[in-house]
UniProtKB/TrEMBL annotation, chain A:
InterPro entries reported in the protein's UniProt record: FN3_sf, Ig-like_fold, LIF-R-like_Ig-like, Type1_Cytokine_Rcpt_Type2
Record keyword Membrane present: yes
Record's compositionally biased regions (Acidic residues): 654-672
Places the protein is found: Membrane
A Pfam family reported for this protein in Swiss-Prot or TrEMBL: LIF-R_Ig-like
Protein name (Swiss-Prot/TrEMBL): LIF receptor subunit alpha a
Region of interest: Disordered: 654-835
Bias (Polar residues) ranges: 708-734, 809-818
Domain Leukemia inhibitory factor receptor-like Ig-like: residue ranges: 95-174
UniProtKB/TrEMBL annotation, chain B:
Transmembrane segments: none
Species per Swiss-Prot/TrEMBL record: Lates calcarifer
PANTHER family (alphabetical): CILIARY NEUROTROPHIC FACTOR
Any GO MF annotation of the entry: ciliary neurotrophic factor receptor binding
Protein name per UniProt: Ciliary neurotrophic factor
Gene Ontology annotations of biological process type: ciliary neurotrophic factor-mediated signaling pathway; negative regulation of neuron apoptotic process
Length: 850, 203
């Protein structure tokens, strides 16, 4: 701020109270100060400094002074005048202050002195007009308060006259220096490099902060200063127009060593390791204990290794992989009194040498006709140790050997042992596979191919259940297994040169979870456990399982023939490949007008297995179709029910004639009596009402067909066979799966749930809330087809109203459309039941009502 | 004569190409100058009312219809050379007094204009050589006010004035260069006739 000093000359012994009057010329602004001023002991003079808000150039000031001593006041002194620059002799257009620097938050008053004869207009502060007051005839002032920091080139204050001529000045608003993080270190063990930060810097150019380190000026461009020798104590002084600031740092040189970045010179590279060498910029490092880090990058993956030593200038990198591209960079620090890591070196790239590939994982698949294939898993990049150029497959026969070369993308070699099998007296052939890369051959892997199949198909094929992304398999330890086990899996219905996957299991293990990205829904897989020894692999156990069961992909072809008062229903089996799940049985429905009635649950059905044709003999039912397309059921004879007998309702899948179906080598669901018994126990005895589970489990194809009522039940058990014992009294709660069954489905309620996704099924069926296995509310009422039931013609629609028409033939079958409860719950009761069998059926219905 | 004619035709082709290139550079420079001026006005909060003195900083002979192509080119080249000297000085003074902060668009544009101006000078120099047939002498920069004011606001106005000077002479360069291609051939013929006439007079 402009300061004005007065020196009232008076007697030293006078009263120290002085009255000072300062008149800002012509503005009429008086400033009165009453001050007590002590006399200078040496000169005997009194001195008082008054600071003006306005620059002293703005206008002239007059000053006078008098003293007061108690009640006595002296006369005013003569008026002293300090002339401003607005005097007539100075005609120029001016503005003040000029190029001033002030701290952030301060107030600044500017004044503009217009040219003689010109008229003042405005003052702009950083482009904005500010209020002005007139100080004199030509002088005008403006004050800006609490100023914020200016840009690097400062704020422009421009004064215009009425003719738009201008005078301007620049004001810098900033902060005093405030350096931080001052620290000194050495890179070469001799000189000093000190660094600091100054994040609050707002003044630049000539007004920028100047730094000095131990009284030596530092570069203004970088926040860094270098001294040639370590001095132990360091003082940084920062100065700018608004003030100064000091920081100190003290340390021993040995505690502040931060090595420079090494320069990697070369490397000695092997297949599994490499030695990387570098040079130091300073020879002083040769005797300095260093700790160094090597950051190794391979395919984006980084690993860091640490080494130490005096004058370290190389590192040995082990555990590398052959034929891989690596990049390494090095940084070091002082091993003793570690201070900071030095900078990383520039990355250095190298490639490891090739090496012999890993021995391939080999297995063999043999067909029944002594043909087959030796198969191996392609080597990964990490197993190849170089570019794979091919595979050598050698068949070692007792009389010699035969070698073939296969391209790198081959994973199977066909073998045909027909002739050998006929002529050889030996029992096995050894296949050996060797992988080749550009420079090396792998160790051979051998697998024994049995010439005479000694595998005995397991009688019972337990189920493998897909859990948490895999099939967990368990087995008993086999004493003959010396080389571990192989678990092999493939599509169960594939017979020739099947795509097969396998996993090897160590000898001590008795379980494994089979996982594969190739598992597909609705495909039955065989899982075969082989023991490995010096002899041919021996099949120990086999499982079957679905990753996810689906409804059969085709329906049965139904035909009927009338035999007196009986109707014989016959249908063909669903091709195995279309099962897409474990087939549990067939439901037979009778279409009566708008209703479908489930027959299979309460009628005694006889399954006739002959030539692959399954026949159901309806011993007690006659279906009579009225000419008016209305069908009723006449039950003419009550069945002689003997619950002690084995049930006749047998699930066809287990009863398939293996020999005649040509699938004798394929594992099928067994029909052991024990299992049969369990099937009978678990059967859902809810009669007539086609339940949601049944409906939802109907095959997609049967949904599309309007000509069959044989429907896949969708019920699954986890046992090896599924024969249910009819229990008229029973509820499902009373029937639990046998404890011996390998996998329990859990959940209670009797029966098993298929491995199906409810959501998918509901989507297929258009059901909003699928509850596939939740029993429906009991109702004796019939069911009517959903809206997707298609009438044959509009006439039929008229005749039947909303009800679906009955088909004309007594043996024709209406549809497997899903059934919904009819609004008329008494439909069943209104029907005439002329036979005892019908009464029995009715009472059975009643017993199931809630 | 035959040799001279061959050289003349080659020089004419060269001149046309160089003139076209120089014009394109001048047009680009003019565009970049306008951006620089706008950036400077924004940076310094200069409104349209902030004007600079009318007088030119660059000192060259006044324009005249009497000037031939060579003289017009020489005048332009000289003015642009002075502009570059002024611009370099302005940049140095700005950095000295106010620099050191973050470099932004303004600083980038300022450097771009300086480099483009140098490129234009190379091309006008080639044109001069093509027309005159002699090496281009560096125009005398003596008397050019390169120190700049000491008061910061005056310095800012001085820098602003230099930018405007560059802008003005860039516009002049465009006009001058665009008028050159058709004239060059005529001028060469006139120059040749003059040379003959001079030689015969001396005889």
């Amino acid at each position: 701020m402009p300061r004005l000093s007065f020196s009232p000359n008076s007697k030293p012994d006078c009263s120290p109270v002085w009255l000072i009057c300062i008149l800002l010329c012509l503005s009429g602004v008086h400033t009165h100060e009453t001050v007590s001023v002590m006399a200078n002991q040496v000169s005997g003079l009194h001195q008082f400094t008054w600071t003006s808000a306005e620059p002293l150039e703005c206008t002239s000031l007059s000053v006078k002074i008098r003293s007061r001593d108690g009640q006595t006041t002296s006369e005013w002194s003569n008026t002293e005048i300090l002339q401003g620059n607005d005097i007539p002799s100075n005609e120029k257009f001016q503005i003040y202050p000029i190029d001033k620097t002030v701290p952030v938050g301060s107030n600044t008053t500017f004044c503009c002195i217009v040219e003689e004869g010109k008229v003042f207009d405005t003052i702009l502060y950083n482009g904005a007009v500010i209020n002005t007051t007139r100080l004199s005839r030509r002088s005008y002032a403006s004050t800006v308060v609490n100023q914020g920091p200016s840009q690097s080139s400062g704020f422009n204050i421009i004064c215009y006259n009425s003719q738009k001529e201008l005078a301007g000045t620049v004001l810098f608003v900033g902060y005093p220096p405030l350096p931080t993080d001052f620290v000194c270190e050495t890179h070469d063990l001799t000189s000093v490099v000190c660094q600091w930060n100054d994040t609050r810097n707002t003044l630049y150019g000539k007004r920028g902060t100047r730094y000095s380190l131990n009284n030596r000026y530092c570069s203004r461009q970088r926040k860094q200063c270098i001294l040639s020798q370590w001095e132990g104590n360091f003082t940084l002084v920062a100065v700018n127009p608004l003030g100064h600031y000091s920081l100190t740092d003290s340390a021993k040189l040995s505690h502040r060593v931060r090595p420079v970045a090494p320069t990697i010179q070369n490397s000695v590279v092997q297949a599994w390791n490499a030695t990387v060498q570098w040079q130091w910029e300073y020879s002083t490092y040769n005797n300095w204990a260093l700790v160094c880090q090597a950051e190794l990058t391979c395919h984006g993956s980084k690993t860091t290794h640490t080494f130490s030593g005096v004058g370290l200038h190389s590192v040995f990198l082990s555990d590398l992989y052959p034929d891989e591209d690596y990049s390494v960079k090095i940084r070091c620090g002082a091993q003793e009194n570690f201070w900071k890591w030095g900078n990383w070196s520039e990355p250095y790239d190298f490639k490891t040498r090739t090496y012999a590939p890993d021995a391939p994982d080999v297995w063999v698949w043999m067909n029944k006709d002594y043909t087959g294939q030796v198969i191996w898993k392609p080597l990964t990049r990490r197993q190849s140790h170089g570019q794979i150029t091919g595979y050598e497959v050698t068949l070692l026969i007792e009389n010699g050997q035969h070698t073939d070369i296969f391209s790198p993308d081959t994973t199977a070699a066909p073998v045909n042992l027909t002739q050998i099998a006929a002529s050889s007296s030996g029992s096995m052939i050894i296949a050996t596979v060797v992988a080749k890369n550009t420079d090396w051959l792998s160790q051979p892997t051998s697998v024994v191919i049995p010439l005479r199949s000694t595998d005995v198909e397991p009688q019972a094929v337990p189920r493998a259940v897909f859990v948490d992304g895999g099939f967990p398999l368990f087995w008993q330890s086999d004493a003959n297994t010396t080389f571990g086990y192989v678990v092999e899996w493939n599509d169960a219905f594939c017979t020739q040169n099947c795509p097969v996957e396998w996993i090897k299991v160590a000898a001590g293990n008795t379980n494994v979870t089979v996982e594969s990205a190739n598992f597909q829904q609705g495909v039955r897989y065989n899982f075969s456990l082989y023991s490995c020894s010096s002899e041919a692999p021996e099949l120990l156990q086999r499982w079957q399982g679905y990753m996810h069961e689906l409804v059969p992909s085709s329906s049965v072809l139904l035909s009927t023939s009338q035999q007196g008062s009986d109707v014989l229903l016959t249908w063909g089996e669903i091709p195995l490949v279309n099962h897409r799940g474990f087939l549990l049985g067939y439901n037979i429905y009778n279409s009566t007008g708008s209703d479908l009635k489930l027959l299979a649950d309460w009628l005694i059905l006889e399954i006739l297995v002959s030539l692959g044709i399954t026949a159901v003999f309806l011993a007690i039912v006659t279906l009579v179709c009225y000419k008016k397309r209305e069908c009723i059921i006449h039950i003419v004879e009550k069945p002689e029910w003997d619950s002690s007998k084995e049930a006749l309702v047998v699930i066809p899948e287990e009863d398939e004639d293996e020999d005649e179906q040509g699938m004798g080598d394929e594992p099928v669901d067994t029909d052991e009596p024990t299992s049969l018994r369990y099937y009978n126990q678990v059967v859902d005895d809810r009669p007539i009402r086609p339940r949601f589970p049944d409906s939802s489990a109907s095959s997609a194809s049967s949904l599309d067909s309007g000509r069959t009522d044989v429907t896949y039940t969708g019920i699954q058990t986890s046992g090896s066979s599924f024969v249910f014992q009819l229990d008229p009294q029973g509820s499902s709660e009373g029937h639990q799966p046998h404890a011996d069954l390998p996998v329990s489905c859990g959940g209670g309620g009797g029966g098993y749930q298929p491995q199906m996704q409810n959501r998918a099924l509901s989507d297929d069926m258009g059901l909003d809330s699928p509850k596939p296995f939740e029993p429906q509310a009991a109702s004796s009422g019939g069911y009517k087809p959903q809206s997707s039931w298609h009438l044959d013609s509009p006439v039929e629609a008229r005749e039947s109203g909303d009800l679906a028409p009955c088909l004309g033939s007594p043996t024709s079958v209406a549809s497997t459309q899903f059934l919904l409860p009819d609004g008329d719950e008494h439909t069943e009761e209104k029907r005439q039941v002329p036979s005892a069998a019908a009464n029995w059926f009715t009472s059975l219905l009643s017993s199931t009502k809630p | 004569m035959a040799d001279r004619r061959t050289r003349g035709m080659t020089g004419s082709d060269l001149s046309r190409t160089t003139a076209a290139r120089a014009t394109a550079i001048a047009e680009q420079l003019h565009y970049e100058c306008s951006i620089l001026l706008e950036l400077y006005r924004t940076k310094e909060s200069f409104t349209a009312e902030v004007t600079v003195a009318d007088g030119r900083l660059v000192s060259v002979p006044p324009p005249s219809s009497q000037l031939d192509t060579r003289d017009k080119l020489w005048r332009l080249h000289s003015a642009l050379l002075q502009c570059r000297s002024l611009l370099e000085r302005a940049i140095a003074k700005e950095e000295e007094e106010l620099g050191g902060g973050m470099k932004g668009d303004y600083e980038t544009q300022r450097r771009m204009v300086k480099e483009r101006l140098s490129l234009l000078l190379i091309n006008t120099g080639e044109l001069l050589k093509a027309v005159d047939g002699t090496a281009v002498l560096t125009p005398d920069l003596e008397g050019l006010e390169l120190d700049g004011p000491t008061i910061l606001f005056e310095l800012k106005l001085w820098v602003y004035r230099i930018f405007k000077e560059v802008d003005y002479w860039t516009k002049t360069a465009i006009t001058t260069l665009q008028s050159l291609p058709m004239v060059i051939a005529k001028e060469r013929a006139v120059t040749t006739r003059r040379a003959r006439s001079t030689r015969s007079t001396r005889r």
